[in-house]
Amino acid sequence: MNIAIFTSGGDCAGMNPAIKTFVEECYTRNITPYLIYDGLEGLIDNNIKKAEHSDVSGIIYRGGTVLRSSRSKRFFDHEYRLQAYDNLKSHNIEKLIVLGGDGSFRALDAFYEDFGIDFIGIPSTIDNDIYGTDYCLGVDTALNVIREAIDDIRDTASSFKRAFVIETMGRECGYLALVSALTCGAEVCIIPEIPSNLHTLGEKLKNEVKEGRNYAIAVVAEGCGMSKEVEQWFEEEIGLEARITTLGHIQRGGNPTVYDRLIASEFVIYALDKLINTANNHHAIVYKSGSFDFIDIQTISEGKYTIKAELLKMGQTLCV
Ligand code: F6P
């Protein structure tokens, strides 16, 4: 059996350990592993090769993806999907594993509908916004990158009596911002999931400033688009000089944490078991309440990820 792996959409830490586990597991199970470079674009352009052990040696500690990635518009077009299918046929590749987000899973689901190519998607995005799974690959590393940045920024904030607005990624999901605010001791957190109330937050902070607080940290999710407003609020309402730090793509980089390396391997091993032992797979593997399961892509597409209620409750006092 020939199985290929590729990475699609935004890269994240943990992809390389997953690729390494895939190649090594395949060889152990007498399956021929293939690598598709450049995501769906590489599938269309036949950027495909049989994997050697040397392709994956020395990659476990590296962030990003050695297979590179892309966001493909062409794959929405049936003509290019047919070209991709012909490429797979030419290598006798029967099944696929894709590391990516729900957009990539939907693209592969269309491909499954067209040509019946089985696949398993491994949720991989720092945004942690995929319905049906508590965890997406890369999140722990991104949170640790943010933690380090906030710890460093606190040095200047406290030395200079300043407020810092730290903008985190996550698209419409506030998971990264909320967990970072909770674990880094921020005073304020602005996320799409909880309507913020700058008035009540301001009253609390002003009292603290009266009692001697001379710096503050606010973590703002990019999806709220409120960083500038919060900066002005600090200056005009709270009376603290303020600066914005937009963390940007450093959150996607960095070498994968132990947690991401381990769960990357687990995702791949469970995905391979399912692909090898069962037919008609057009599913994603999910990690829910401490165990692995599989759900179909339509269910993922129709659902909306929500941050668990306990976390939202813990963050409430930082948001309103
Ligand atoms: O989905 C991952 C992510 O990093 C988001 O958090 C962010 O909004 C987006 O991708 C950035 O995309 P790009 O790398 O295309 O600028």
How would a crystallographer describe the biggest sheet? 7 strands, mixed
- Strand tally is 11
Structural class: alpha/beta
Q: What is the 3D shape?
A: elongated
N-C termini distance: 55 Å
* Cα-based radius of gyration, to the nearest Å: 22 Å
Indicate the mean pLDDT.
97
Which molecules are bound besides the chains?
6-O-phosphono-beta-D-fructofuranose
Low-confidence stretches: none
Question: Which sequence of SSEs, written as H and E, runs from N to C?
Answer: EHEHEHHEHEHEHEHEHEHEEHH
* Fraction of residues in helix: 40-55%
Cross-sheet strand order for the largest sheet:
3-2-1-4-5-10-11
Binned strand content: 15-25%
The number of distinct helices, counting runs of at least 4 residues, comes to: 12
Features:
single chain, 320 residues, 11 strands, binds 6-O-phosphono-beta-D-fructofuranose
Break the fold down into its secondary structure elements and pairings.
Layout: E1 2-7, H1 15-28, E2 32-36, H2 39-44, E3 48-50, H3 53-56, H4 78-90, E4 95-100, H5 102-115, E5 118-123, H6 139-160, E6 162-168, H7 175-184, E7 188-190, H8 198-210, E8 216-221, H9 227-238, E9 241-246, H10 258-277, E10 282-288, E11 291-296, H11 297-302, H12 309-319
Parallel strand pairs: 1-2, 1-4, 4-5, 5-10, 6-8, 6-9, 7-8
Antiparallel strand pairs: 2-3, 10-11
The chain binds 6-O-phosphono-beta-D-fructofuranose.
